Amino acid sequence: MAAKRAAEILRAAWGDSSDVDGLPGRLAAACVRSLPVTGVGMALMTEEGPAGIVAATDGAAIELEQLQFTLGEGPCVDASETGRPVLQPDLARTAPLRWPAFAHGALEAGIRAVFAFPLRVGAIRIGVLDLYRDRAGTLSPDELSQALSFADAATLVLLHAQAGSPATESFHELDERAEVHQATGVIAVQAEVGLAEALVLLRARAFAESRPVGDVAQEVLSGAVDFGNADDSG
Amino acid sequence: MMAREQRLTEVFVELADTLVEEFDVVDFLQVLTERCVELIDTDAAGLMLDDQRGNLQVVAYTDESARLLELFELQKAEGPCLDCFATGQVITNVDLADSRARWPVFTEAALGLGFTYSHALPLRLRGQVLGSLNLFSLERKALTDDHVAVAQGMADIATIGLLHERALRDQVVLAEQLQTALHSRIVIEQAKGVLSARAGITVSEAFSRMRAHARRTGEQLTSVAEAVVAARLHPGHLQPPPDAR
Q: In this complex, do B175 and A85 lie within 8 Å of one another by their Cβ atoms?
């Protein structure tokens, strides 16, 4: 439902390749093709800060990620910390005050606008998707909408990549119903794991049983399914 | 009559007070839907927001039935709340005994939940519609013009809450604020699950306890939810609200 467009993006990025490791790169490439941006970077983020570059479509995109990795400041760092998108249509005007060191390096690298989207599912913070452009200017509402869908797709790819579970499961749409998120919390307590792993467990169970994630979530909430003794769930 | 006017004043002051302080946008929308039910003589309320990906998401609801009905509309892509969002028109006093021709699937579902009237008000901002405020009545009684005016006022207050002061000038901040509201809602749902499993209580009881704690300590609801998820707050810290019914 909500993530239908994200699922289509994923399916297209998957293509007919079985190369799981290349999926983030193909997703970033598709993002550059679909939107009026110059380059795209994707980084893993933890509570402590940037934790690794997953994909970058060109040299400036790598530079964008590395600057923030080294300096510990910048729009992508803020996006991850605050959990909200950081849209900077005119870096030369706004960035020097907010992130002096980052602004210097980014402008040097020819970056004029940055749109950073946190990759997260509620309290689960996974990474950041960064779009940059070599000229100033805002994204139109349609472009913003498209970028958010790419962020949804990237969230799924990185969520599953981190958990080491098969990427094909990513095609299971991200169900935004309240039950799914409530059940994620319940599973985290039952299985004594973090929320990210709990969500992957829930999705893996739904995938294995070829059922909607929301249905399995409902059973978790009613107590019909318990992940506490889930050693047999495979 | 006076009692209602006085209550209206109290609610207005409560909401306005919230807006001048640091506030949690989901908590604010939740209080707003609850006050709507109380002030506008309806039985359930829900609020849906544009997720900027071409869909609506339910962000606040007073009642499981309101949430289900809104989800149902989203799934079937049919219903007055969706039409309200699509057109920006106020669609109030939909008599469900007489709405089958226009919204067959929605009408059946709403009747099935025991509702007789449905109302939808747009969250308008200049030419844009950010979402809709939806009200449902059990009793067969239409809203007066006065009620409709208050309902639209509440929808406008919700819009203002979403905007934050700066956002009035800044489209970028609006986009950021909408995304924040949607993600805060998810954090709260995750925390409801965590707390319910730890304390052995229902998810709605878990919600009441988190809100009571937020009220007691002056923390934002989303911060309380994050603390529950991060296990910085334990069931022992979160007692049932004193006025629990």
A: yes
Quick check: B26 contacting A, CB < 8 Å? no
Q: Among partner residues A2, A122, A184, which is closest to B51 by beta-carbon distance?
A: A2
Residue entry with tokens 């990237």: A154
Nearest to A77 by CA among A55, A108, A102: A102
Q: Of chain B residues 183-222, which have a CB less than 8 A from chain A?
A: 183, 185-198, 203
Nearest CA in chain B to A124: B187
Q: Cα dihedral sign for B88, B93, B96, B97?
A: negative
Q: Tell me the per-residue pLDDT of B34-60, one tens digit each, with 9 for 90 and over.
A: 999 999 989 999 999 988 887 888 999
**B242 burial via Cβ count (<10 Å: 0-12, 13-18, 19+):** exposed
**Cα–Cα distance between A217 and A225 in angstroms, integer?**
9
Using DSSP's 3-state secondary structure scheme, residue B86 falls into helix
pTM higher than 0.90, yes or no? no
Contact status of B52 with chain A (Cβ, < 8 Å): yes
Phi-psi region of B50 (alpha: psi -120 to 50; beta: other; left: phi over 0): beta
**Per-residue pLDDT reduced to its tens digit, B117-171:** 999 999 998 888 999 999 999 998 899 999 999 999 999 999 988 876 444 445 5
Query: Which tokens hold the place of A196?
Result: 């990210």
Interface contact A185-B176, CB threshold 8 A? no
Q: Do A84 and B179 touch (CB under 8 A)?
A: yes
The interface pTM score, or ipTM, of the predicted complex is 0.84
Q: Cβ contact (<8 Å) for B203 and A195? A: no
Backbone angles phi, psi at B84, to 5 degrees: -60, -45
Type of residue at B96: L
CB atoms A152 and B53 under 8 Å: yes
